[in-house]
Automatic annotation (TrEMBL):
This is 8-oxo-dGTP diphosphatase. InterPro entries: His_Pase_superF_clade-1 (IPR013078), His_PPase_superfam (IPR029033), NUDIX_hydrolase-like_dom_sf (IPR015797), NUDIX_hydrolase_dom (IPR000086), Nudix_hydrolase_domain (IPR051325). One of its GO terms (molecular function) is 8-oxo-7,8-dihydrodeoxyguanosine triphosphate pyrophosphatase activity. Keywords: Hydrolase.
Length: 322
């Protein structure tokens, strides 16, 4: 069976005079109104494609919010053969006006949700709109991301004779570190916290260079620091929850289950898919996150009121959303 054609997009949203509005795009080739979306480039990750396609089709620069329901439907592939397209969507708050349109879109229109529902040409596109409205009614549409990252693949312990904290990434790990950078950028991450071990700091270094931001290293997130005083790792996570700013934290396999358990305790119980979110966090903690994995928790609130409303797992091969 032919694999589905992967595509990604967003539902850009804003508030105008207190009213929720969403942005639809018009494609003159098909004379239809839909969401900004497009196919993944070879080797591109889903969230990276969603942000790129939104910029290309609407000229809106967005950071991804919580994931929305996806869609699968029949299309013709490049050779004219029947195929299935799989599209993954995210909510994306627009914070700046759009620039000029450049690609195959001839109009972007901001509409209230009732008018948007009537204007959409495909019934499947209303699934994302309904989910966005439900989240807005529940007060969980405005979220902030916290990305937990397990360091990418490093030189093996058996072939390294120096201090283990200096053990570097191997070539595969370096390649994955470069791939992680645009994923973190897609979610608008601005703050970086890491174990001081080289294999962790080097995992975030490409993104730190791209962002032009300092990386804060915390001994409590290292394997050695965690073994000496396990509670320190949790305190570093608590500080990020208190700030409530888009952040990434990079640590090690033995440390991350403690942090995942802390997030598990903060899953919003009223979320329709709370069970799936909890299962995803338990699975990541039980089996340990894969090396080079990025787990994105979408939160509302800060400090003691911070609650996890959605979780995505982005592995070196393929991400999953819950």
């Amino acid at each position: 069976m032919t694999a589905p054609i992967p595509a990604a997009g967003t539902v850009p949203w804003r508030r105008r005079r207190g009213q929720l509005e969403v942005a639809l795009v018009h494609r003159p080739k098909y004379d239809d109104w839909s969401w900004a979306k497009g196919k993944l480039d070879p080797g591109e990750e889903w969230p990276v494609a969603a942000v790129r396609e939104t910029l290309e089709e609407t000229s809106l620069s967005v950071g991804l919010g919580r994931p929305l329901p996806g869609a699968e439907y029949a299309v013709l592939d490049g050779t004219g053969q029947p195929a299935t397209k799989e599209v993954r969507y995210w909510a994306a708050e627009a914070t700046r006006p759009a620039g000029p349109l450049l690609n195959e879109i001839d109009e972007v229109r901001w509409l209230d949700v009732v008018t948007a529902s009537d204007r959409l040409d495909y019934a499947r596109d209303r699934d994302q709109l309904r989910a966005l409205v439900r989240a807005d009614n529940a007060g969980t549409l405005t979220t902030w991301p916290l990305a937990l990252v397990r360091h990418a693949h490093a030189v093996g312990r058996g072939s390294w004779s120096q201090d283990d904290r200096l053990r570097p990434l191997d070539p595969a790990g370096e390649e994955r570190a470069a791939a992680i950078a645009p994923v973190l950028a897609a979610y608008g991450v601005k703050r970086l916290t890491s174990s001081p071990s080289v294999r962790c700091t080097d995992t975030l270094r490409p993104f730190a260079a791209q962002l032009g931001a300092a990386m804060r290293t915390k001994e409590g997130l290292s394997e050695e620091g965690y073994a000496a005083e396990p509670a320190r790792a949790g305190r570093h996570l608590e500080r990020l929850l208190e700030r409530g700013a888009p952040a990434a934290l990079c640590s090690h396999g033995p440390v991350l289950p403690t942090l995942l358990a802390m997030l598990l305790a903060r899953v919003a119980p009223d979320e329709p898919e709370a069970d799936l979110v909890e299962d995803a966090l338990r699975a990541a903690a039980h089996a340990k996150m894969a090396k080079g994995e990025v787990l994105v928790a979408h939160l509302v609130g800060t400090g003691p009121n911070a609650r996890v409303v959605a979780v995505e797992r982005h592995l070196p091969s393929r991400p999953r959303a819950f």
